[in-house]
Design brief:
With about 300 residues, the protein is mainly α. A hairpin with a 2-residue loop joins strand 1 and strand 2.
């Protein structure tokens, strides 16, 4: 009669598999704070104790049917610590007598071959890998677990939420406090594509709205180009209702306008203008020379 695995090992393995299942299949990653999760763990542990008690009853009845020699051997094995038995079964070497029983009747150049069983730790890892692979593939196929796109979506939502929280407490950007920064150009370009490209075209070359890369401007409200663009985004164009007051309408924030103004300054002052020959719109308004500086 073989000794049984301790209840503590069953509990540890069951909790580990439960966490693995929740990690792969649960939509909410905060399952540790879920009453359902802890209720399931508690019920599982109670069931394991019930099964262990039933196992004790069966073991006691089976023990009574053993011979005296078998009883001594069973008690000796049962009193050996479980992890010591695992260690011995995994790494214990056969004696010379035991090797005779597993010796294969062929060899070469004095080398003999033994019909050893694979170590239990190796077999355990192999079966664990098979089970994990099956569970992983199931989770990957039918849930969002381990999907890069799904993970990116989750991280993006977290990032946007953190930005929103920051915007609530951060000082508001207005015409006086807005400052040019080259670090804002890339984000300003994306915001420009979202809010401005319909009228002003790709790269600010113009279309329905004027060309933003040349030296001619219709609305001149500030002495610096950067501030002038911010003013337009805040108040809109007095000459064309299509150019709306994006900030006052709530379409963009002052921080967004600061980034868009940085991008417009960049394409107007730091890159070559897009001419008519290159697909740009014809100059509109009057030629203006902006003050030095970009604040």
């Amino acid at each position: 009669m073989k000794t049984r695995t301790p209840i503590s090992v069953h509990i540890a393995v069951t909790i580990g598999l439960t966490i693995l299942a929740f990690e792969m299949f649960a939509q909410d990653t905060a399952y540790f704070s879920s009453p359902f999760f802890w209720g399931l763990i508690l019920i599982t542990i109670i069931l394991l104790f019930i099964m262990n008690s039933i196992g004790d009853l069966v073991e006691n009845e089976s023990f009574k049917k053993l011979s005296d020699e078998e009883k001594v051997k069973f008690l000796e094995e049962k009193n050996t610590p479980y992890y010591l038995k695992l260690w011995n079964s995994a790494f214990k070497k056969q004696s010379a007598t035991e090797e005779k029983d597993i010796l294969i009747d062929h060899g070469f150049d004095g080398i003999t071959e033994l019909d050893n069983s694979l170590p239990k730790w190796w077999i355990g890892l192999f079966y664990f890998g098979c089970i994990f692979c099956a569970v992983y593939l199931t989770a990957f196929a039918f849930t969002d677990y381990a999907h890069p796109e799904a993970e990116l979506t989750v991280e993006t939502k977290k990032m946007l939420a953190s930005i929103e929280d920051y915007e609530k407490t951060a000082p508001q950007i207005n015409l006086e406090s807005a400052k040019y920064s080259a670090d804002n150009i890339a984000e300003g370009q994306e915001l420009f594509k979202t809010n401005c490209v319909t009228c002003h075209g790709d790269g600010g070359k113009g279309g329905i709205g004027p060309n933003l890369t040349d030296t001619h401007w219709i609305n001149i409200k500030e002495k610096s180009l950067f501030k002038n663009v911010f003013w337009m985004l805040e108040n809109g164009s007095p000459n064309n209702p299509t150019m709306r007051p994006f900030i006052k309408e709530g379409t963009i924030t002052g921080r967004d306008a600061e980034k868009i103004a940085a991008y417009v300054y960049h394409i107007n002052q730091e890159t070559a203008p897009i001419t008519q020959a290159q697909g740009g719109a014809a100059p509109q308004g009057e030629k203006v020379t902006w003050e030095n500086g970009n604040n």
